[in-house]
Structure formats: structure tokens, C-alpha cells
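SEQUENCE-TO-STRUCTURE ENTRY
===========================
What this section holds: a protein sequence and its matching fold, both as plain text.
Question of interest: how does this chain fold, as expressed in C-alpha cells?
***
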Amino acid sequence: MNQIAKEDVLAASEGLKAIAHEIRLTVLCHLLQGPMTVSELLKATETEQTNLSKHLSKMRMLGVVETEKQGNFVQYRIANPDWGEVINALKKIYCPD
């Protein structure tokens, strides 16, 4: 049996902590459909701007989401496609069709 490096387990644990909040998971579920602006995410998550900004900032700092300037708007998207796979796996478990 292969050993799993402690550093890898710690990194995975930190990554899961980065998404382990209902607002952050909601944002990521919406971002699976493609990049979105803050305005679009506010409407989709039905949360207050300061609260959403706090969560987007944390996910950006931890490398879960990234931004791209589009004219006067900033679009958010999932930074690594592998995060999409994680979110899809969670959706299959907790939100089956």
C-alpha cells in the first residue's frame, strides 16, 4: 500500500476548509456553469454584498477562484478545473437529480 504524504493530506484538508461554507459552495455550484460577475452572484446566492465579497476574497486568496476584468466588470471563475470535479461529486452525493 502506498503511503500518502502528510503534506498532501494537510493541503487537501485546507482546500476542503476553503470551500466548506454554504455560501462558498453555492457560489462554486453557480460557477460550474461558467464565469459570473459579482452582480450575477449576488442575485444567484441571495446574500448581501459584503458577505459575498468576504467569501469571494477568501476563495480567491486560497486559489479556489480567480478573476478576470471584462470591461467595467470583474468575472469570477473556478481557478482549477479539478475543483469543478470536487463540486460535481458533492452535487451527486447531496443533490441527486
